[in-house]
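ok trying again, last paste got cut off:
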Amino acid sequence: MNIFHITLNITIVNKYFCDKMNFTLKYKQINETRPLNENYSIKDLLDDLELSAQTTVAKKNGELVIEETVIENDDEIQLVQIIYGG
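nice, full thing came through this time. structure:
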């Protein structure tokens, strides 16, 4: 193996890991980076977490958003549970 092969392998590995898209999820005690699929929406996230859009509000980078909003690379998504009472 020569220097060209080593450099090429490092380049391929870096491209694989650096090109992955991610977003940050903040919900209750969760504060984690998650992989991001193309056209992944707030609704998809709520469905994956088994949360209802009727009782959960989403913020994307600090701004309130609707459930059809698509999550983009490096977004911060905060979910807030709405509590009803009387």
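cool. The mean pLDDT is 85. The beta strands are 22-27, 30-35, 56-60, 63-65, 76-81.
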